[in-house]
Structures are given as C-alpha cells and as structure tokens.
Amino acid sequence: MKFPGRRQHKHYFPVEDKDPLTNQINRNSRLERSYIVGIDQTLVDIEAKVDNAFLEEFNLKRGMSQVIDDEVTHALYQRLKSEDLVDYEYAGGTIANTMHNYSVLADDRSVLLGVMSEDIKIGGYAYRFISNTSSRVDLNYLQPINGPIGRCFTLIDDTGERTFALNYGLINRLKPESIDEKLIAESSALVISSYLMRTEGEDTMTEAAIKAVECANEHGVPVVLTLGTKFLIEEDPKWWQDFVKKHVDILAMNEEEGLAISGFDDPLLAADAALDWVDLVICTAGAQGLFMAGYVDEEFKRATEHQLLPGKIPDFNRYEFSRAMRYKDCKNPIRAYTHTAPYMGGPESIKNTNGAGDGALSALLHDLCANVYHKLNVDNSSKHRQKALTYSSLSQISKYANRVSYEVLVQHSPRLSRGLPEREDSLEQAYWAL
C-alpha cells in the first residue's frame, strides 16, 4: 500500500518501519492487507472521428446517446476498422476505471465483479479490456459468459460534437449467485454505480448488485455510489434519495448529478443536502473545482489554517482539516466542507473528460483503504482514537482527488497509466502542505 497523495512534510505511517530494538524489519510478522470491491458493466470504449454522412448511414442521431443492436455494432466496428477511423480503444466502465486507478495509485489489490467473455480472442473486445487493466485488479471473480461484453462508441464529428452508440452485449447478466459474500464482508469498501440499477428483460445485474449492497450493509462495509449520469437520476429523484439514504455511505457525483438528486444547482448546497442521506460526499464541478462534505465529531474537529471561503454556506471550509467520520460514530456531529480549485487552473488542453470523476473517486478510496490498512497493522496508534472513515483530512483528500483528476484530463485514456509523479516540477510544494 502506497501512502495516499503527497505531503510537504513527513507523515507518521509506520507499518513498515524498522524495529527500534533490532534495527531490522520484523520478518516474523506479516502485514494485514486491505482491498476494495467494485461491481461494473464490463465494456470497451472506442473513439473515432467521423462525418455526418457516416452517422446518417448508421441511423445515429448526432449528439445523442443511443443503444444499438449486435448487427449494427458489428457493421459499425468493421467499417471503422477498415477505413482506419479508430483513434483509441480503451477498457471502460466507470467502476472498472475506478478500480484500475485505485490499484495504480495504491499499488495494491482491488477486486472487480462483473462478467467476461469466456472465449477471448487476441485483439477482441474482451482481450482489450483485460490487457488494459492493471494487474493489481483481481479479475478472478468475474463471471464467464458465452457472448460479448459491452462496447461504447464515441463518434466525434468535425465540430467536436460527440455521438454515443452503446451495445450492452451481455454486461448485465451478472447473477446473484456469483456474488461472494465473504469477499465483500472482508473488504474495505463496496463501489457501485447508478447504471447497475438500469436493467430489463433477462438481465440480473440489478439483483446481483442489491445482494452485494445488502451484504455490505450487514457487515458494516462502506457502500460507495457514483451517480454516473444525470439523465438516470432525473427519471426518479425520490427513488434515488431513498436508495441512497437506506444503503449508501459515500456518494460521488458531479454538479449536474447533484442538481438532479438534490434540486440544488450550487455544488456546495447539493453536497450539503446529500449529507442528509450519507456520511461523506465528493462532488466534482468542472471549472469550479472539487467540493467535499462530511461529518466530524465535535471532539475531533480541526479548524483550517487557510483563508475562510465565502459561499452559500458562509465560511464553509472552517473545519476542512478534520478527518471524516460516520454520522453514527459521532457523539456531537458537525458538518465539515472543503473546496479545491482546479489543479494549476486546469489543463491548457483537455484531451478527454471521460474518467475525471472516476479518478477523483479512486483517490478518495485510496485514502479510505489506507486508513483501514493502518488500523489493521497499527491498531494502537493514537490516530485511531478517532473512529474516522479516512486517513487524511477533507482538505488533503480534496487536493489529492483534484490532482488525480487533472492527470486523467490531460490524456486520452480514462485510466491512469502510472501513479502521480514523484516530483511536481511545475507546482509549488506548498500545494500539499497542511
């Protein structure tokens, strides 16, 4: 487990320190490991540049997202390949991206649940998914299927307008019996997306996801939900509010999804409203940066040393140096918030917005899992006198998540190819202070 984020000063994280008496590592003691579990619709993202005539030929509505059948998918893909129009092909899926990014950042294990074609051909969709996923992501629990995984085409015309064509394949056929309850019960977090609840016909994904969520709830494992798309939430905000309040501990969203579920267009107010249902919220807001909201007990609150910020909640960042806690673990809970502006003002050129939110969430999960890892191995540390959800403060996690998002925005792939650089050549070290 790599320590999450970067710091200007040295933090005390002594799980692998040398024994002070023998001045060597105690080889008789083996470190306990922590891991996270994610459930996703396994698919491949295919990006290509086309003209309007191409879209019309395949009856695709410009600028819209639409589902296409297997026959159209095969013809579309063959046409793109034969005319050398494909720019990029990447493993996709919002939770799969998050699991990959987590494992790259933490250099540690995560587990992905979903389906995978049992007949894998070199160069095929399933092959590309596996070959573009970190070896630290455990794929051994994937359920084999006799058919294709999903394919999502992003077709970009001369004006930059994006048209999406999605073929689900058999990605929603994960069966409830494929959910290993022991695996989830012993994990540090269960991560799901709203897409898992959008199934129909013979699909069993929703049933499987609900089983996993209920198992996590039963064993006190934090359930993390990323809202995924505002369109799905807008269909029935009340249902999502009830689901989140009953099953979810940590909510990840962008400002549009925040508006859809809370009714507030201000990201800070949307995050504040979500605290009525969950313990911790992370909200990415494009050019505005990143907001976080959570709870801390009065006893453990820490006032910021930064300037107090104005907003719809005056001086909202007053306790941003606090570590987040579950509401139920607070004797006298108070709400704490933080905000981080885009890293370096944002990239000069954004190569791809897909995956930026997944990157931010992976940073939060890294910090959460590091807290569990530290507690497993240094249980008597004074740090764990506070029953916190996270290892770091809201302020530090926000900086870390913001930095990871930037790394995704400046590349074409929604997945990190490496962790953060060891040295920030273009950034003042003060960014990571406090």
From TrEMBL:
Question: Which positions does UniProt annotate for GMP binding?
Answer: 40-45, 93-97, 198
The record's Pfam families line, in alphabetical order, gives: PfkB
| Cofactors demanded by this protein | Mg(2+)
Q: Which GO terms describe its molecular function?
A: ATP binding; guanosine kinase activity; inosine kinase activity
**InterPro entries from the UniProt entry:** Carb_kinase_PfkB-like, IngK, PfkB_dom, Ribokinase-like
Indicate the segments forming the Carbohydrate kinase PfkB domain, all copies.
Answer: 91-294
Gene that encodes the chain: gsk
This protein is called Guanosine-inosine kinase
Keyword tags = ATP-binding, Kinase, Magnesium, Nucleotide-binding, Purine salvage, Transferase
Which reaction equations make up its catalytic activity? inosine + ATP = IMP + ADP + H(+); guanosine + ATP = GMP + ADP + H(+)
Source organism of this protein record:
Thalassomonas actiniarum
Q: What does this gene product do? A: Catalyzes the phosphorylation of guanosine and inosine to GMP and IMP, respectively.
